[in-house]
Amino acid sequence: MDILISGASVAGPSLALWLHRAGHRVTVVERAPTLRGGGYAVDFRGRVHLEVLRRMGLLETMRARATHMGDIAIVDRDDTVKATLPSAIFSGDLELLRGDLGEVLHDATREHVDYVFGDSIATIAQDADGVDVTFERGAPARFDLVVGADGVNSKVRDLVFGQVPQRNLGVFGCIFTMANEFGLDRAGLMYNEPRRTVTIAGIDPEKAVISLFFTADGLEHDRRDVEQQRRIVADAFAEAGWRVPRLLEAMRTAPDFWFDSTTQVRMERWSRGRVVLVGDAGYAGGPGGNGTGLAVVGAHILAGELGRLPFQRAFEAYEQRMRPYVDTCQKQASGGSDFLVPSTEKKIAQRDRFFRMIRYLPPVKHLFKHLATRTATAIDLPDYGGLGHTRDLSGNRGNVL
What we know:
By secondary structure, the chain is α/β, with parallel strands linked by helices. Helices cover 37% and strands 27% of the residues. The protein is built from 14 helices and 20 strands. The model is unreliable at 389-401 (pLDDT under 50). Helix 1 (11-21) runs parallel beside helix 5 (98-109), helix 1 (11-21) runs parallel beside helix 10 (291-306) and helix 13 crosses helix 14 (362-374). The radius of gyration is 21 Å and the shape is globular. The strands form five sheets. It has a seven-stranded mixed beta sheet. A six-stranded mixed beta sheet has the order 7-2-1-11-18-17, with helices on both faces.
């Protein structure tokens, strides 16, 4: 089949890899003019996520790009260490920078998939035999199937399903990189004030990833107005102490500045006719909801079902397999805001006491890691033998799927 995928982040290229292996002709259209970078870290947790990466033939390649981050020290405004956040809890089993993950997926697919950057879908019209698509810049084309893998603010979802209400989890934040002037090498610092959290992660001696998160009620923003977003963050942290004034100064000129609200997408169906959603476009989990893992697992299952069933039945089987998994991950993320951005000094102190405790009680540390991984493994992966063999990028033969 001729299949169009909207979105070249994680779910889109992951799906493109599988669809190409199954013999389909795949086009990926991406609004951004180039492959998206971004220094923030994403992680994979537990046997299910790692097994999908192994089946893709990319596990060892991704391990070679891992951040290998150490612990994060939770400090007060005088840099006194109050507690330590263990890397085994927040980094999962494999952590990469978002830009590195994108490069690995693009490198694995670019020779076989037609990537079109700097364009986006304008209209979608379906009939019994196919989907007619017009683009903002390119010529119209017809496809057998269209996949929305274009994130929380999915254009495909809006065109086919209408405006789907998003569940705002009440947390907003920005992430950017700056020169590592903090002496941190594979280590980090976290600072809290009520309703505000700051994290500095020294990913290498030259570069640091900065995260500024805050809670707000009724805040609205234009997702295309970057200068407005910078002002929102500056206003939210205007009175903050510690190193925040220096971080805000760097934020104003950071070329990889990213800002958004933490939201969940919950839909009754992920497909309509010949159009289907995968990843955040259909089921964004929010922080702690295994979003990156959901993207690669969802892509694998969707491609696997398309390999063994007609597309209508494949879409149904994909939803049946993924729905309980998505529900579990979204439920976990729903209660994460008070951990990510504690709302009071009392809650900050309670969290710090917890992490001081697990430092001296290893069984508690292992239990917490288990709880953090449990949702990521709450699905049984089918064996989609029809998708062929895997081969990692070093040329070593993988297992038959």
